[in-house]
Amino acid sequence: MTDHLLVESGGPESGAACERFAGDALRLLQDGHHVVLFLVENGVTAALPGASQGVAAFLRSGGELWVDTFSAAQRALVAGDLLPGSRMADMDEVADRLLAPGSRAVWH
Known about the structure:
- With 108 residues, the protein is an alpha/beta fold.
- It has a five-stranded parallel beta sheet, with helices on both faces.
- Helices cover 35% and strands 23% of the residues.
- The mean pLDDT is 95.
- It has a domain of 65 residues: Hypothetical Protein Ychn, Chain: A, CATH 3.40.1260.10.
- This is DsrE family protein.
- InterPro entries: DsrEFH-like.
């Protein structure tokens, strides 16, 4: 099993690309991989209820959804605004995940 870190920076404002990327994360998860979907910059808005069907499906299926603390704060979002099960994460956690042996990362 491979660990994957998928980083989404565009969010729903980027159109269908965000949904396709969340779909990629879901397929990796369904194939038995450990997947963290990390939302950063405008991507954090995909963690708002109703904003992204793909992100919500990924989370419901057992994926880990991390939301960048700094980017959320810049958009006046707090943990209580986000989909249940998502969690705020700092860049040091992301760096640890990137540097972990066997980890693969994709930035979108």
